[in-house]
Write a structure and sequence with these properties.
Blueprint: E1 23-28, H1 36-47, E2 54-58, H2 60-69, H3 76-87, H4 94-97, H5 105-122, E3 129-130, E4 149-150, H6 152-161, H7 164-168, E5 173-180, E6 186-190, H8 198-204, E7 214-216, E8 219-223, H9 232-236, E9 244-250, H10 262-274, H11 278-301, H12 304-307, H13 310-318, E10 324-330, H14 347-365, E11 380-383, H15 399-402
Parallel strand pairs: 1-2, 1-9, 2-5, 9-10, 10-11
Antiparallel strand pairs: 3-4, 5-6, 5-8, 7-8
Length: 403
């Protein structure tokens, strides 16, 4: 496994896409049961003929990424649907016998909590199941003593839904993040340099203490969301000189209301902990690209003698001439979803998440600028048409300052 992307990675060569961009990156954040939102986003992208050339994910985003990368484009939505219908198959069918409660937040909240409680007791089919006897009664040092749930069923689900030979054929670049338990270092498993197996995907989603660490080549790994819940930095730090369209699909919103009780404190804690702070990262990237663009312009004016200096050669190599559109789709939870929303796998909630992702993506793709190369001096345009950013107003000047 390598810490740095290789120049010959699949996304490092121009590919034909349904857009003017040579590379399309789909980045999927972690968030458990909320991940059906990402499946809905992908369905809308596929309807528009927009297929990624590089897909990267963390935790549930790694599972969705593997299903997408491990299938032919024509089969991807169906395989995603098989996964999400499978993991929601064991849920209580409350939507069929209490439909009149669905539009009442207080009742929906109670039903969601009930559904989440059933997951804690019974697990999720094809994903994880409670350990028996529980960890405190397991032998010290045994894997079963380090987590509340057994995820061995997930391996079978992945082997059924994902063609790992396709991923390793490198038709598109595939990257998933995890954390080395022994060193605490963040690591990426990337098909540019690694042979991807089911355990790599399982490791990316092994969030303790619910799930045990996954052993890979003698090292043990936990959920990548413990250190970074988005692969955005990994993709943006690997310039390929290709004009790139990035879809950043987040399941946790960095922005949120001030909590009013302990329940909403719990929700806000998770949002702050697992949000990607995408806007801060993209603002920083835009600033870096502006400096690179300025050097590229200056470099063209340098005499050959200065271009040949070690300093100019170093800066020229670091000055990515590509342009980027970064499109943000961030899931915003309705008020009835509480702090258990990442493990509330009921069928109705799964369908709600999927539909919201699909509708948000269709709203976004209706804007032609998404598929138009940016003209900003930095070469970077950032869009969020679902939850647009509102810049703070500058303070009004006093009469003396205006004078």
């Amino acid at each position: 496994m390598s810490k740095t992307p290789r120049a010959q990675a699949p996304a490092a060569a121009p590919q034909a896409t349904a857009t003017p961009f040579e590379s399309i990156a789909l980045l999927l954040q972690g968030g458990g049961a909320l991940g059906a939102y990402q499946a809905g986003v992908y369905e809308a992208m596929a309807e528009h003929g927009i297929e990624p050339t590089w897909i990267a994910g963390i935790s549930i985003g790694a599972i969705n990424s593997a299903i997408i990368a491990g299938n032919a484009p024509a089969d991807r939505v169906a395989k995603l649907r098989s996964f999400w219908e499978g993991v929601s198959a064991g849920s209580v069918g409350w939507a069929s016998w209490l439909p009149f409660l669905a539009d009442h937040n207080e009742f929906r909240s109670t039903l969601n909590q009930f559904a989440a409680g059933s997951v804690l007791v019974a697990g999720v089919p094809g994903f994880f199941s409670p350990r028996f006897p529980p960890p405190p009664l397991q032998p010290n040092g045994a894997t079963a003593a380090t987590s509340w749930y057994d995820t061995s069923a997930l391996r079978g689900t992945l082997e059924t839904l994902v063609d790992f030979d396709r991923i390793n054929a490198r038709e598109l670049r595939f990257s998933i993040g995890a954390v080395n338990v022994r060193t605490g270092n963040f690591a990426y498993f990337d098909n540019a340099v690694d042979t991807i197996r089911p355990e790599h995907v399982m490791a990316s989603g092994a969030l303790p203490p619910g799930f045990a660490a996954v052993e890979i080549d003698g090292e043990h790994y936990w959920d990548g969301g413990m250190v970074s819940n988005t692969p955005l930095d990994w993709v943006l730090s690997a310039p390929s000189d290709l004009d790139t369209l990035v879809f950043q699909v987040d399941l946790w919103s960095a922005d949120g209301p001030l909590p009013t009780d302990l329940s909403t404190v719990g929700v806000r804690m998770k949002e702050v902990q697992f949000s990607s702070r995408t806007r801060a990262a993209t603002d920083e990237f835009r600033s870096r690209q502006k400096l690179r663009a300025a050097f590229n312009s200056l470099y063209q004016q340098l005499p050959d003698a200065l271009k040949a200096t070690p300093e100019a050669i170093l800066l020229e190599a670091a000055s990515d001439p590509a342009v980027y559109n970064i499109v943000q789709l961030v899931y915003k939870s309705p008020t009835y979803e509480g702090q258990s929303k990442d493990y509330e796998f009921s069928r109705q909630t799964m369908l709600d998440h999927w539909r919201t992702g699909y509708e948000n993506a269709r709203t976004t793709l209706a804007h032609p600028e998404v598929l138009t190369k940016p003209t900003e001096p930095s070469g970077v345009a950032v869009y969020d048409f679902v939850h647009p950013r509102h810049e703070p107003k500058a303070p009004a000047k006093s009469q003396k300052e205006r004078a």
